[in-house]
């Protein structure tokens, strides 16, 4: 017996694949992805990251092959993270003109001039203590760290970086880097700020890949408390006022509400960083046969776009690009 009260037939638009495609609101494109790449010194190095199956550290000669594959898949942008041979208290290899990231950027831009090369601008991979700035009595000195971060950004721009992406979460880092870039003649190089970066447990595999775990303490004094929402507005507002051209929210999956909040209130392009722990969980479950990797990855990525991200920084980029190409997208 049919109900006597009126009701809507929403299922009419779900009846066939063609109808579902016609009314689909959110779409993923290969151009949405920014692919993280880890570079190291040496030759013939392609070190697998145990906690991130399918992700490697590359020496520059091996990097050429990786970039060939990335470009062949239609991925337009990569972000470089460097692991130097020598670390010290001030992370001097971060701002060295012949540092590993600087050379990776120069090589990749020569190889593919149209590839968008994003430089991660931080000190944690380069310091012997693993913190994102100058450590004094167990506490990161904000303003002294800004000086070194500015030097790092300028050296990366000189190497050919298309975008500077500071991830250190020091107060004033966008303003300091923006001023340094402008004074060095790089006023046209945008800043992709890690504006909203939480002190998350999801970063563990990255710290293995980048060899950047803190030697003492943690980063809770400069990264954000996962319990806080309004703090994200304060951070995004500061970076916007200081001249940020993009706003990154990191991590993505547990912070989709924050992505939507920032999307609703700011007009810069929004980048969701689908971080290492989020990647590792899916990979581990897929290897054990517990989930359908393609379906769960694509659902996860579409949720980030639906939440408001314009771009997604993700270790899944190559796999997702292959799946989209198979679907003719």
UniProtKB/TrEMBL annotation:
Active site: 197 (schiff-base intermediate with substrate), 250 (schiff-base intermediate with substrate)
Transmembrane segments: none
Chain residues that bind 5-aminolevulinate 1: 207, 219
Example of a GO MF term: zinc ion binding
Entry binding sites for Mg(2+): 235
Superkingdom, taxonomy of origin: Bacteria
Keywords: Heme biosynthesis, Lyase, Magnesium, Metal-binding, Porphyrin biosynthesis, Zinc
EC number, as in UniProt: 4.2.1.24
UniProt cross-references to SUPFAM superfamilies, sorted A to Z: Aldolase
Database matches in Pfam families: ALAD
GO biological process, one term: heme biosynthetic process
Keyword Lyase in record: yes
PROSITE patterns assigned to the protein according to its UniProt record, in alphabetical order: D_ALA_DEHYDRATASE (PS00169)
Binding site for 5-aminolevulinate 2: 276, 315
Cofactor: Zn(2+)
Entry's Gene Ontology cellular component terms: cytosol
Amino-acid positions noted as binding Zn(2+) in the UniProt annotation, renumbered to this chain: 122, 124, 132
Pathway(s) annotated for this protein in UniProt: Porphyrin-containing compound metabolism; protoporphyrin-IX biosynthesis; coproporphyrinogen-III from 5-aminolevulinate: step 1/4
Catalytic activity: 2 5-aminolevulinate = porphobilinogen + 2 H2O + H(+)
Function recorded in the entry: Catalyzes an early step in the biosynthesis of tetrapyrroles. Binds two molecules of 5-aminolevulinate per subunit, each at a distinct site, and catalyzes their condensation to form porphobilinogen.
Subunit field text: Homooctamer.
Family to which the UniProt record says this protein belongs: Belongs to the ALAD family.
Protein's name in the database: Delta-aminolevulinic acid dehydratase
Species this protein is from: Gottfriedia endophytica
Primary gene name: hemB
């Amino acid at each position: 017996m049919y109900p006597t009260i009126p009701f809507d037939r929403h299922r009419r638009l779900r009846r066939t694949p063609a109808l579902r495609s016609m009314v689909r609101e959110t779409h993923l494109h290969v151009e949405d992805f920014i692919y993280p790449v880890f570079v190291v010194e040496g030759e013939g190095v392609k070190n697998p990251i145990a906690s991130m199956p399918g992700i490697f550290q590359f020496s520059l000669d091996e990097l050429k092959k990786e970039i060939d594959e990335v470009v062949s898949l239609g991925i337009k942008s990569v972000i470089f993270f460097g692991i130097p041979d020598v670390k010290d208290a001030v992370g001097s290899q971060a701002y060295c003109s012949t540092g590993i990231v600087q050379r990776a950027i120069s090589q990749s831009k020569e190889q593919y001039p149209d590839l968008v090369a994003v430089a991660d601008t931080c000190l944690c991979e380069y310091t012997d203590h693993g913190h994102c700035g100058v450590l004094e009595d167990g506490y990161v000195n904000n303003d002294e760290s800004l000086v070194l971060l500015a030097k790092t950004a300028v050296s990366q721009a000189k190497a050919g970086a298309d975008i500077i992406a500071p991830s250190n979460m020091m107060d004033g880092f966008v303003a300091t880097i923006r001023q340094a870039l402008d004074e060095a003649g790089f006023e046209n190089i945008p800043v992709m700020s890690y504006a909203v970066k939480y002190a998350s447990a999801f970063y563990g595999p990255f710290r293995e890949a980048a060899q950047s775990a803190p030697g003492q303490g943690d980063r809770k004094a400069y990264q954000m408390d996962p319990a806080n929402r309004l703090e994200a507005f304060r951070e995004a507002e500061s970076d916007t006022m200081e001249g940020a051209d993009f706003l990154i929210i990191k991590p993505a999956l547990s912070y989709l509400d924050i992505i939507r909040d920032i999307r609703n209130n700011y007009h810069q392009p929004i980048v969701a960083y689908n971080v290492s722990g989020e990647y590792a969980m899916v990979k581990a479950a897929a290897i054990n046969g517990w989930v359908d990797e393609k379906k769960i990855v694509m659902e996860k990525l579409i949720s980030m776009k639906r939440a408001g991200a314009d771009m997604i920084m993700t270790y899944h980029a190559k796999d997702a690009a292959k799946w989209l190409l198979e679907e003719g997208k």
